[in-house]
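INFO  loader      accepted 1 record
INFO  loader      residues=165
INFO  predictor   begin
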Amino acid sequence: MTQASVYDIDEHDRLESLQSLPPCSPSVPLPIVFSDEQRTLIAYFVHGGEEFAIVEFPCLDTCMLGGANEEALNGHPLFARGLRSYGAFEVRNSSWIRRLERMNAAHPQHDRAEFLSWRRHFILTFHDSMFECIARDVRMVELLRGSRRDAVLRLAARFQERPAS
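INFO  predictor   done
INFO  writer      dumping tokens
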């Protein structure tokens, strides 16, 4: 039996590992999220805990931070499809995106094809939380050495820059 979640999956959801993003530190990833209606930037410590990665999700549709920690990840609906701790994933044929599309169909000018054309479902799993979002893309921005304070300052500086198109 799985825990209740924001979305239920069906036979179409397929999980793919994202090798383009560095794995987070298994002990102290400490993710930090800056987000607005156009994009999300997330910083987290990578393996070893001395470097942090900054990752961007442009054209953000929706996001959430929290959920299952590593001990409860097996309660996530995508666990049986390969979702694991300390990883980065994309969900192809996402039930969550399809659910959002059905909800958006109430809009008088809803265009199903346009709605589905650019939305992608991403998941980053950490030690005590996970991050999930629907966005156009995911981009590794930079990998830097430094402290949590350095990560916050760099993330804030990056967030003030003009979003990538």
